[in-house]
């Protein structure tokens, strides 16, 4: 009896750890964690190198040579960049790219935000309306471009014919430089406003309706509630949407090329369309890739500015 009592009174620290506990200690040792993490992320790193790092490095190699799609050519340094920056066609394309991006970003944002605010109200057939409004974004861009070409492409198209019958004269959309630029910008807004609508609808879900009721009791108008409450609350999602939409618009090749091919007389050339024509039509790989690099640097600068605004809105 006394022996058993002594055994039960042994200190806890003298007990032998269970085999499972020893195993957990060995497997959770801090020395093995970095190796395990590195092994797990290795496939992703390899994929990123193959799909991003290598193409960028090879494009930089081509931008520094005067080759073609077949041969690398001779090393010319920064001559391709100097040639591009001295070309008036580059600056015309850069100017229209800025206009195209601003129209696409802010036009689609204004329409998308207005529709998102409308969908928060009690309107009939809201589900059907959402489905219809998503069609411009869901339908393939080729189908949308062909539809617009059929509607306004020539003077005998339905819309110009109707405007002529109503006494507005001969409407010129895609054959006039200014008309083509306006049409391309409107088409960009038409294609992208559903994306902004979804982004703003998601942002507005975080807005509590009680604050509007309190503001209404205090005498605030609808415009004041929107300016001083809604906009600050959705500021961060708005900046993120602007960053994404800027990238979409600047890199948007199908919209311009399917509608106008960059014409007439190069009026609707964006930088991405000009780079495509330089490489695949003029067979000048070096200048074409140099245009793409300059476009990427400008886009990165815009993204950095917008991300700074995101940090300011978050900290404030």
Characterise this structure:
The protein has 15 helices and no strands. It is globular. It starts with a helix and ends with a helix. Helices cover 73% and strands 0% of the residues. It has a domain at 79-134 and 191-315: MetI-like (MetI-like fold), CATH 1.10.3720.10. 25% of the residues are buried. The protein has 316 residues and is an all-alpha fold.
Quote the average pLDDT: 84
Helix-and-strand structural type: mainly alpha
| Major sheet size, sense and barrel closure | none
- What is the beta-strand fraction? under 5%
Write the layout of secondary structure elements.
Elements: H1 2-8, H2 19-27, H3 33-63, H4 79-85, H5 88-119, H6 126-138, H7 141-152, H8 158-165, H9 177-204, H10 209-217, H11 222-233, H12 235-250, H13 254-259, H14 271-280, H15 285-315
Helix pairs in contact: 3-15, 4-15, 5-9, 5-12, 6-9, 9-12, 12-15, 14-15
Describe the structure using short key phrases:
316 residues, mainly alpha, MetI-like fold, 15 helices, 73% helix, MetI-like_sf, transmembrane helix, MetI-like, transport
């Amino acid at each position: 009896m006394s022996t058993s009592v002594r055994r039960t009174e042994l200190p806890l620290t003298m007990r032998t750890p269970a085999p499972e506990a020893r195993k957990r200690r060995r497997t959770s040792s801090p020395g093995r964690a970095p190796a395990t993490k590195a092994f797990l992320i290795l496939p992703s790193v390899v994929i990123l190198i193959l799909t991003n790092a290598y193409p960028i490095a090879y494009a930089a190699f081509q931008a520094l040579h005067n080759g073609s799609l077949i041969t690398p050519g001779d090393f010319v340094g920064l001559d391709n960049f100097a040639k591009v920056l001295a070309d008036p066609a580059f600056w015309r394309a850069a100017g229209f790219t800025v206009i195209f991006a601003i129209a696409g970003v802010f036009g689609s944002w204004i329409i998308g935000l207005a529709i998102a605010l409308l969908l928060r109200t009690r309107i009939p057939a809201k589900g059907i309306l959402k489905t219809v409004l998503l069609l411009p974004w869901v339908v393939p861009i080729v189908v949308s471009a062909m539809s617009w070409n059929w509607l306004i492409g020539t003077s005998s198209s339905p819309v110009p014919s109707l405007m002529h019958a109503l006494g507005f004269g001969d409407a010129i959309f895609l054959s006039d430089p200014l008309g083509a630029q306006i049409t391309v910008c409107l088409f960009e807004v038409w294609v992208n406003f559903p994306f902004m609508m979804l982004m703003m609808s998601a942002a507005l879900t975080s807005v509590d309706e009680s604050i509007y009721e309190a503001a209404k009791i205090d005498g605030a108008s609808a415009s004041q509630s929107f300016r001083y409450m809604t906009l600050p609350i959705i500021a961060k999602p708005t900046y993120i949407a602007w960053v994404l939409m800027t990238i979409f618009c600047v890199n948007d090749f199908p919209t311009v090329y399917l509608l106008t091919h960059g014409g007439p007389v190069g009026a609707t050339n964006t930088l991405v369309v000009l780079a495509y024509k330089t490489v695949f039509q003029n067979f000048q790989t070096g200048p074409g890739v140099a245009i793409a690099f300059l476009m990427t640097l400008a886009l990165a600068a815009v993204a950095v500015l917008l991300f700074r605004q995101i940090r300011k809105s978050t900290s404030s």
